[in-house]
Write a structure and sequence with these properties.
With about 350 residues, this protein is of the alpha/beta class. The protein has 11 helices and 11 strands. Strands 3-2-1-4-5-6 form a 6-stranded parallel sheet, sandwiched between helices. Helix 6 packs across helix 11 and helix 7 packs antiparallel against helix 8. The structure holds 1,4-dihydronicotinamide adenine dinucleotide. This is Malate dehydrogenase.
Length: about 350
């Protein structure tokens, strides 16, 4: 999309006429956990986004400095800073999109599930506040384990009487970003043309790239398909190990979350054909109340959850293998929230 710096291959825009359609309305975006490894570059990318009018940065530490720093960039987005429980309301009031990267990241040897004990409580608290202060906002959760934190958020919103499944999404865009990069490298394709849907969840074997549905169509031998799938599933661990204790993916995650936020804002602005994969309330797979699926984004948030399409035998087996783990992680989140 000409002039759009976060050009996103999976985001399709129906026509050049449609591209000119979004009118910038007042769009307040809140980032909760804005001073962290993801929060800072994500906030910078949002400060550069023409669809954002106000950027409310919230963190329990160091956020005033981040906001002062960002506010000197000569882009029109107004930056405001909030810290501590007493200021959370100010960050959330009037927000149409709340992006949550708050919480601890993995260290080598840890699974995303190992983060549950700390991050579950953080997400529960922040989503409770969003339910109170911006009940109609779209909430996008980055904090891991996404397979559990999204179900926690849904229970919190249900208990507050404001749950709208169209407005709660787990951010799995990084899996798509990685799949696009790796497939394009492996096949010498132009990155801007490559789109690989990634479904399931956001941890280990629950990450299922649908290589058979890649655009453009690519063919793999059995061994290549297995290796590519594993690389996409383990890409987060690749970064965790390379950072050797200093955290997990932050820059690529910020890029992915900024792309997701931009797609969401385009949908809100009435752009007709915006698609992303995200971990959402879904009927795609019986028995799994949430599933990362390709979704269409519109004025109401998720306007449509697309089905899985035709899977090949490898993908069918991978889907069967992931389901017990995915369902258990979802249930763990639900149980925690209901406790
Ligand atoms: P970080 O430790 O650098 O930053 C986290 C920030 O959250 C810190 O600034 C901290 O002060 C803040 N925070 C903690 N409790 C808070 C609260 N109650 N309210 C507001 N802010 C709070 O961590 P990083 O690297 O930014 O990662 C954040 C999360 O994102 C982790 O859970 C990580 O696992 C997850 N992640 C998710 C990915 C995805 O694809 N969905 C990819 C990479 C990381």
């Amino acid at each position: 999309c000409a002039g759009r710096r976060l050009a996103a291959p999976a985001v399709r825009r129906a026509s050049s006429r449609a591209r000119t359609m979004p009118v910038v309305e007042a769009r307040k975006v809140a980032v909760l956990g804005a001073a962290g490894g993801i929060g800072q570059p994500l906030s910078l990318l949002l400060k550069m986004n023409k669809l954002v009018t106000e950027l409310a940065l919230y963190d329990i530490a160091n956020v005033k400095g981040v906001a002062a720093d960002l506010s000197h960039c000569n882009t029109p987005v107004k930056v405001t800073a909030y810290t501590g429980d007493a200021e959370l309301e100010g960050a959330l009031k009037g927000a149409e999109l709340v992006v949550i990267p708050a919480g601890v990241p993995r260290k080598p040897g840890m699974t995303r599930d190992d983060l549950f004990n700390i991050n579950a409580g953080i997400v529960k608290g922040l989503v409770s506040a969003a339910a109170k202060h911006c009940p109609n906002a779209i909430i996008e959760i980055i904090s891991n384990p996404v397979n559990s934190t999204v179900p926690i958020a849904s229970e919190v919103l249900k208990a507050a009487g404001v749950y709208n499944p169209k407005r709660l999404l787990g951010v799995t865009t990084l899996d798509v970003v990685r799949a696009n990069t790796f497939v394009s490298e492996a096949r010498g394709l132009d990155l801007k043309d490559v789109d690989v849907p990634v479904v399931g969840g956001h941890a280990g074997i629950t990450i299922l790239p649908l290589l058979s549905q890649a655009t453009p169509s690519v063919t793999f031998s059995d061994a290549e398909r297995e290796a590519m799938t594993k690389r996409i599933q383990e890409a987060g661990t690749e970064v965790v190990e390379a950072k050797a204790g200093a955290g997990s993916a932050t820059l690529s995650m910020a890029y992915a979350a900024a792309r997701m936020a931009e797609s969401t804002l385009l949908g809100l602005a009435g752009e007709p054909s915006v698609f992303e994969c995200a971990f959402v309330d879904s009927q795609a797979v019986p028995g799994s109340p949430f599933f990362a699926s390709k979704v269409q984004l519109g004025p109401e948030g998720v306007s449509q959850v697309l089905g899985l399409g035709t899977l090949n035998d490898f993908e069918k087996a991978a889907l069967d293998a992931m389901l017990p783990e995915l369902k258990a992680q979802i249930q763990k989140g639900i149980d925690f929230a209901r406790k």
